[in-house]
Amino acid sequence: MRRPVLAVTSGEPAGIGPDICLALARADLPVRVVVLADRDLMRERAALLAHPGPLPEIEHVPLRAPCVPGRLDPANSRYVLEMLDRAVAGCQSGIYGGIVTAPLHKGVINDAGIPFTGHTEYLAAKTGTERVVMMLAGAGLRVALATTHLPLARVPGAITRRDLEATLRILDADLRRRFGIPRPRILVAGLNPHAGEGGHMGREEIDVIGPVVEALRAEGMDLAGPLPADTLFTAGVLAGSDAQLAMYHDQGLAVLKYAAFDEGINITLGLPILRTSVDHGTALDLAGTGRASPASLLAALRTAAEIVARP
Questions:
Q1: Whole-angstrom Cα distance, residue 157 to residue 151?
Q2: Whole-angstrom Cα distance, residue 38 to residue 64?
Q3: Is there a single domain that holds both residue 147 and residue 242?
Q4: Is residue 301 a part of any domain in this protein?
């Protein structure tokens, strides 16, 4: 039988994306992997790192300007986005079974005059998806986010009944569809300390989170919450759960990254195509040094491989 094919976008060319993609040539994976990158860039980085053996399979995407490891150049921002565009088109046409993304640099893309908030939002727009959910996984945790990259002052207003219900529906549906979990057990964090302390430390749990959890539980979802976030991630509370929903970025991801920084991965839920990613940045200071670990990229590929192999 023909093995599924996954596209790997190599990300910001001045970062560690090309470095860690080189490791895929020697990885034992149950899928065929095609790296989207400039072929000459990959050869140059391989020579710099004294990379042994052949390059991984490459779909050539030409750089827009010469690249120096560790030195950002806005001229290559279009190159980074072209890799994503080609990967999405390949998934939509059936060439690729999913996308695994190496890190890009949001700041330099914006410096190029291109409004850009991140992979997740870009892929949602490219696929015409109204709502997606960010979930990070590692060390036995699957932590999804009700809000993502927002200042803390804006978080309470962003947690509405409508949005929270939509997030939980996507999380439940993709745990079933992508991960094969028949009835996912989801723990839902409160927003405030001690989940609001009965309204004494905030009313979001009473006015928003609790009613949404109760309504969806009445429909048959297996939900617990709102739970105090400071104890949600303890072993006794986590036991038997399949995922955890944090109300804001650092509430959930500080725990996950402490537990699984080297091998944590990012999964975009709600898309019509499969996308997993590394859970780290471009690490410009490590580019071209040989000190970048491919562990997160390999974990993201293995998770994507498991998902595409699932009937």
A1: 11
A2: 10
A3: yes
A4: yes
Of 260, 282, 303, which marks where a domain is finished?
260
Round to whole Å and give the CA distance between 104 and 108.
9
**Domain-located, residue 111:** yes
pTM over 0.85: yes
pLDDT at position 1: 53
105-116 pLDDT per residue, tens: 999 999 999 999
CATH number at residue 311: 3.40.718.10
Instruction: Tell whether the model's pLDDT for residue 297 goes beyond 90.
Output: yes
Domain count, the chain: 2
Contacts of 148-156 with C-beta under 8 Å, sequence gap 24+, read 148/120, 148/249, 149/117, 149/118, 149/249, 150/248, 150/249, 152/248, 155/191, 155/247, 155/248, 156/191, 156/202, 156/204
Residue 128 CB neighbours (<10 A):
7
For the stretch 251-260, pLDDT in tens is 999 999 999 9
- The DSSP code sequence of 256-293 is HHHHHTTT-EEEEES-SS-EEEESS---GGGTTTT---
Whether residue 2 has pLDDT greater than 80 = no
Same structural domain, 93 and 18: yes
The domain of 283 spans 1-129+271-311
Say whether both 110 and 231 belong to one domain: no
pLDDT digits (tens, 9 = 90+) for 86-102: 999 999 999 999 999 99
